[in-house]
Amino acid sequence: MADNNRLVLAYSGGLDTSVAISYLKERTGKDVVAVSLDVGQGGESLETIKQRALACGAVEAYVVDARDEFANEYCMKALKANAMYEGVYPLVSAISRPLISKHLVRAAHQFGADTISHGCTGKGNDQVRFEVSIASIDPTLKAISPIRDLALTRDVEIAFAKEHKLPITQTEKSPYSIDQNVWGRAIETGFLEDPWNGPTKDCYSYTDDPAFPPVEDEVVIEFKQGVPVKIDGRDVTPLQAIEEMNRRAGAQGIGRIDLIEDRLVGIKSRELYEAPGAVALITAHQELENCCLEREQHRIKRDIDKRWGELVYDAQWFSPATQSLNAFIEDTQKYVSGEIRMVLHGGRAVVTGRRSDTSLYDYNLATYDSGDSFDSKSSNGFIDIYGLPSRVAAARDVKFGNGIEVPDNTVE
After folding, report:
1. Where are the domains of the chain?
2. The pTM is what?
3. Would the annotation count 348 as a binding residue?
4. 10: annotated binding-site residue?
5. Where L-citrulline is bound, by residue (predicted)?
6. 86 and 112 Cβ atoms separated by less than 8 Å
C-alpha cells in the first residue's frame, strides 16, 4: 500500500539529485527513497552512489546493475527497428527512460511510496518520457520534479548543500549537459546552443577524431534473428557486442552526430551525440535485412522503423501502438541471421561482405554469367502487363490532346 509520507527519487549521485534528497524532504515533508541504475554510463560504482544517497538523507537506497537488462530488452529492440530518429539519432536517452521508469515504479511498490521524483527541467523531452512511462505502468503514482516544480536552481543547490553540510564534493560545472549509457552519449547546452559554433574536442568522450584514424579495422559480426551473437567468431552477449563495437568503432571516430532536432515539447534544439557501437551495429543489421527480408515486407518495415523511432522518441515506449509495431518487427527478424563483414575507418563503417543461410539473394538468379537461371524471355510479358495501366492512360491523353510533349531536337 502506498505511503503518503514517502517518495522515490531517480538518483544519479551528482550535486542536483544529492541536494534534492534533503530539499524534497523539507519542501514536501516526505521521506526519500533514492533509486540508481547502472545502464553502462560509467563513473562511480553503485555502492559508492548508494552510500552517498544514505549520507545525504535518503531513508532507503535502491540500486540495480541494469546493464544486461538494458542491452537485451531495450537496445536490441532499437537495433531490430534500426531506430534512427530523424534519420540519424539512435535514441540514446529515449530508450533508457522507460527502463529507469520501470525500476522507479518497482521501488515505489517495494517501499510503499505514492510519488516519484525526477531531475528533469520543464523544457526537455525526458520529463515527458518519465512521467508518461510511469503513468503507463501505474497511473495511481504522482510525479514531481524539484528543478521544474520546486525552483531548485544551481545557486539554490549550492547554498542548500553548504547550509545543511551535505557530504557532496562540489566540482566545477561542465559547460555541457551530458547524458550517457552503453548505447551512446548525448551532449547539449552551453557553447553548443549557438548552432553556428562547431563542436570542440572537449565535447567528445566515446569517439576519437576521425580525421586522424588508426589503421582500418575489419570486423565480422554474426547475427541470429536480428541479434548480434558473435564478433570475429567469438560468442558475445548483446551487452558485450555493444561494448566491443563502442571501443572499436569509437577508435575510428564513427558515430559522431550533430543536428538541429525537433523536440517532443515543440522546440528545435541543437544536439550532439556519440553512438559508435549503435551506428556500427545498425549499419550491419540493415545490410543483413537487405539480404533476408522479402521485398514488400522490407518496404513496409522501413516505414515501420521510422514510425517506431518517432513513437519511442515521443515517450510512447509502453503504448499500444509501439507494442503492435514490436510484434511486426519481431516477426520480420526470424530469418535475419548471418554474417556481415565491415571495415571501420576514419568515421565510416562500410559493409564489404554478407553471408547468410537464410538470405533471399540467389546467385543463379542474379548472375549475368553462364548458368543464369533467370528466364529473360519472361520479361516481355511482365513488361507488357506491368505497363498496361500507363499505356491505357497515355492513349486517353493523346485522344484528348493532353499527351506528353516530346522535345523537337531537329537541327535547323
Report:
1. 6-176, 178-363
2. 0.92
3. no
4. yes
5. 89, 125, 129, 177, 261, 273
6. no
Order of strands across the sheet that contains 217-224:
234-235, 227-231, 217-224, 338-345, 348-355
- How far from 155 is each of 25, 93, 160, 313, CA to CA, in Å? 19, 26, 8, 31
What does the buried/exposed string (b/e) look like for 23-49 if buried means 16 or more CB atoms within 10 Å of the residue's CB? bbbeebebbbbbbbbbbbbeeeebeeb
Please list the active-site residues.
16, 97, 126, 177
- Could you say which DSSP state residue 164 is in? T
User: pLDDT > 90: what percent of the chain?
Assistant: 79
Whether residue 375 is predicted with pLDDT greater than 90 in this model: the reply is no
What pLDDT digit, counting tens, does each position of 305-339 carry? 999 999 999 999 999 999 999 999 999 999 999 99
* Strand ranges (E), 288-393: 338-345, 348-355
Provide the edge-to-edge strand list for the sheet that holds 268-274: 177-181, 184-188, 268-274, 256-262
Can you give the pLDDT at residue 411? 59
125 marked among binding-site residues: yes
- Among residues 108, 106, 107, 97, which one has the least CA distance to residue 132? 97
Residue 1: which pLDDT band, with cuts at 50, 70 and 90? low
Which CATH superfamily is 6-176 part of?
HUPs (3.40.50.620)
- 184-188 and 268-274: which strand pairing? antiparallel
pLDDT for residue 172 is more than 90:
no
For strands 113-117 and 3-10, give the pairing.
parallel
Task: Give the CATH fold of the 178-363 domain.
Answer: Argininosuccinate synthetase, chain A, domain 2 (3.90.1260)
Is 121 annotated in a binding site? The answer is yes
The answer to whether 370 is a known ligand-binding residue is no
The Cα–Cα gap between 109 and 209 comes to: 46
